[in-house]
Amino acid sequence: NPWILSQSPLQIQLWIAANPKKRKRDLERLYQLRAVGFIWDTYEWRWQNMFRQLRTYQQQHGHCNVPSTHARLGTWVRDQRAEFAKIRAGQASRMTASRARALSQLGFEFVRRDTRQRQQQQLYLQRIQEYKQFRAKYTSASSRNTTATTTVTTSGMDKTLRNFVERQRRIYRQWLRNQSSGNDSNNTTTATTTTTTTKRA
Q: pTM for the full model?
């Protein structure tokens, strides 16, 4: 029971009191083992060793994205991302709060930037497909009557899709404003025409 070494003196005394003769002997052995640097948790020891290697790599390269050419360290880095993914999925994981904090302090990317971009692109395409399906369902109302389209959009879309559509429209309106910021008559005409088209979309 090496855990007892991390307890308070009072807790140690209470632990010994349950079986004084045996536990005093056990405690002495535990102290002796700790004095010679005995490793209780081999996983933690390996983790700390690899973390030190990652810290050295980060100091040399300025990031923690270890390539596959560093086989051992690269595998360990992928394992840390996998353990973090388990937490996000609500599964049991060896990624503790202290380990996650230590990695974060190095600037560790628990989700690679390229992975995030790929996921965002997939989500974007998914929302586009959902919008196409929505338009197909309400095609008669959305293609002939602007007022009806607005009503259907408000009452018919689920919140996620509605937020997506509204965000795309805000981005588009901002783009139109940027295009017409020079007060160019052609740009203004184009913006007006396109805005009208957008309202009917």
A: 0.45
